[in-house]
Amino acid sequence: MDDQPTPSKRPVLAACLAVLVLAVGAGAVVFWPDREQAATATPAPSASASPSLPVSPPLEKATPVNQVDALLDAQAQALVKGDEAGWLAPVDQKLHPRYRTIFQNLRALEVTSADLAIDEQPKMDGAAIKARVWLNYCFSGVDCPAFRADANFGAPKMIYMLTWTPRADSYVITGMADSGVPNHMQPAPWENAALTFAHGARVIVAGPKSQAKNIKRALPLAEKAATVADRYAGQFNNPQKKYRIYMADDKSWKTWYDDAAPKWSAAYHRQFNGVGSDIVMRAGKVMSGTDREITELIQHEMAHAVTLNGNRNRDEGQDQWLVEGIAEYIGYQPRKPQNTDSRDALRYVQSRRGAVKTMAVPQLAEKADDLTVTRLYATGHFAAGCMADQFGEPKMITFVQMVVYEGMDLDPASQVAFGKPFKTVDKTCVNWIRKQL
């Protein structure tokens, strides 16, 4: 199943509101068996060979596909070891810039595991071989699953169509093209252009060279946000060993991950089949804000990593109000919802759409208007705040874990977490929200 990006938007309000609106997250910030080799028995050496013993037949010469497969294995090992020469060894000079870019970006992103594998029976083009090749990879901080030739399961992966040409008793990669296979993880930010990096203790921030100043500015803010996210990661029993943030210029924003973000968004959190995730920010929308606003946005996106990464819920979209609500709750820490822009936002929405009738606001459509988006984010924020205020933060977190992470329905989760039916909790919080406004 494709992991959809988790956007975060703090709604764009009418000009009459004296509130800074910044599209954030995918949202507006008002601010818002390795292929295992078969074991082989190795005979013990003997001092002399007896002529009476049978002689083993000579090994067959490796087939072209065997040779290519061995070269791919060696390349993957070179990538993990940091051996650039080994990574480039089977690559034609004309492709060195592209391969060097991939290598240097992945090393800077702390790649810890890689597997290059042929997907299907290669095709012969004269003496050349054309084969679809998968690059499975993992970064630091995750347990990397074994190779699996499926874009929707297992480790994150890239898929390419490579051409191998015989040269000097071996094969060289002379062509690299799109695979023609749909892959929600492509194009990744790191695969086509050299990136600029800033490394912190908990965060890596990367982006095109044009974003160098924004990357430098964002790193200390992201490190600050990580301390808050880490605290909640402990409560959710879902520690994140490293956060990776990509700062996109306008061009990159429209291409990375196949233009995955909703049209109304300005940042999003992208899961990878439950094996890690990325945070992508649209620099032009986000970085014009104040340091506090940017930090709150980053905390929101990191909150998605804390509450969603590795989840067993295959349809968290139906509880989007809670997914975004807990992210807003963590994102605005230590401020309570009634002391944030969410209060003005919800007041404004209710003046045009009526009072809140339930916490469980319907899921957003991709083309949802600003008022609808604002209502979901602000209502979700107040909902999380209410459950923490009225029942205690630990019980609220238990409820979120069961619904968002485990995929439990609202009522049974409410019975377990709060000892009350969801209908009762919902009514309590609707009244609480009205009083705060």
From TrEMBL:
InterPro entries noted in UniProt: Peptidase_M4/M1_CTD_sf (IPR027268), TAT_signal (IPR006311)
Stored PROSITE patterns: TAT
Gene3D superfamilies according to UniProt: Neutral Protease Domain 2
Keywords: Membrane, Transmembrane, Transmembrane helix
Keyword hit for Transport: no
Compositional bias per record (Low complexity), positions renumbered to this chain: 41-53
Region of interest (Disordered), residue spans: 41-60
Membrane-spanning residues: 12-32
Protein name: Peptidase MA-like domain-containing protein
Organism annotation: Actinoplanes sandaracinus
